[in-house]
């Protein structure tokens, strides 16, 4: 009799333990699911805030990559840079993606002094000018993705980048804007790309502070990984 009672008790304990384990497993699973969901939605809303909801988070197919950049080498301090800030960032992207690079070179080069360049850039903006590009344009048909980088000049891409954008159709491709700047972030570069190429898959761009360009490799790599490169 006592043996039978013991057996029943043992069975009850086993059922009780299994029930506890099942409840704990369900609670833990739900918690993890909820955390993943809220992380994802936070990320999505952050991306859409940055990009006014238009830019995509992932390339359709990242395939063959081209980096197009314009860089003046002098920033605002007229300092002794060996290469321009934007070129530094372009090279970090190149190192990670193995992309081809194309530099936009001005037929009429910009002056060395910041002041003279600033005046000219402002005039070009006022005139909605399209300054001539000296070198042959790249054959973009070969590429699935084009990164488009430049310094922010008066809150926008320099007008010579607009010359490039008017001349080259990037609709249907992944297009990724990037800038260097002295406080304005991307300025309106992201919007300019979205407006110019309504049928492109415009990905979330990045703005790197020019004077931090040389220390930005990790940030650039993290951004590239986030957008699928
Ligand atoms: C003509 C001109 C206009 C600029 N306008 C801005 C601006 O509106 N906002 C900003 O944050 N930086 C501005 N800058 C600073 C540059 O964006 C910054 O120094 C950039 O990193 C230079 O890149 P680069 O060395 O590749 O040419 C301007 C610089 C120049 C020469």
UniProtKB/TrEMBL annotation:
UniProt superkingdom: Bacteria
Record keywords: Membrane, Transmembrane, Transmembrane helix
KW DNA damage (keyword) present: no
GO molecular function annotation: oxidoreductase activity, acting on NAD(P)H
Annotated stretches, region: Disordered: 41-60
Residue ranges, compositional bias (Polar residues): 43-54
Keyword Membrane: yes
TM regions (residue ranges): 12-33
Domain named Flavodoxin-like: residues: 84-226
Name used for this protein in its record: Flavodoxin
Organism: Lactiplantibacillus pentosus
């Amino acid at each position: 009799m006592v043996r039978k009672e013991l057996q029943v008790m043992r069975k009850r304990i086993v059922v009780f333990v299994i029930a506890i384990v099942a409840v704990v497993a369900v609670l833990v699973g739900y918690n993890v699911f909820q955390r993943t969901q809220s992380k994802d939605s936070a990320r999505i809303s952050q991306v859409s805030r940055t990009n006014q909801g238009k830019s995509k988070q992932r390339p359709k197919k990242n395939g063959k990559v081209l980096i197009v950049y314009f860089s003046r080498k002098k920033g605002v301090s007229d300092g002794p840079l060996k290469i321009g800030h934007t070129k530094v960032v372009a090279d970090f992207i190149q190192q990670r993606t193995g992309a081809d690079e194309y530099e936009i070179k001005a037929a009429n080069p910009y002056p060395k002094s910041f002041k003279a360049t600033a005046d000219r850039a402002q005039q070009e903006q006022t005139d909605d000018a399209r300054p001539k590009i000296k070198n042959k344009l790249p054959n973009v048909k070969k590429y699935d993705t084009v990164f488009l980088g430049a310094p922010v000049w008066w809150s926008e891409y320099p007008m010579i980048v607009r010359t490039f954008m008017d001349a080259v159709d990037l609709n249907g491709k992944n297009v990724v804007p990037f800038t260097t700047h002295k406080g304005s972030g991307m300025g309106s570069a992201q919007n300019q790309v979205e407006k110019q190429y309504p049928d492109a898959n415009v990905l979330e761009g990045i703005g790197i502070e020019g004077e931090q360009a040389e220390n930005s490799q990790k940030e650039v790599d993290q951004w590239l990984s986030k957008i699928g490169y």
